Amino acid sequence: MFRRPRQTTADGLSLRLSKILHPIPVIPWSALAMWYLGVPVGVGAPMIVVRDAANYPTAQSRLAKAGFKRSVPNRNPHPQQMLGGINAGYHRVDRSCAVFDYRDDDPSDKAMQLYLYLFPNLFAHVFDGWRWQEAPRHETAQRYESYGNLHYALERALVGSLVRAAVEEESATGFSAWGEDLRSCVAMMNGYLEVDNDALDYCADEQVVDWYSRNFGRIREARFGPMDHRVSKRLGSGREMPVDTRGNPI
Question: pTM of the predicted model, to two decimals?
Answer without folding.
Answer: 0.86
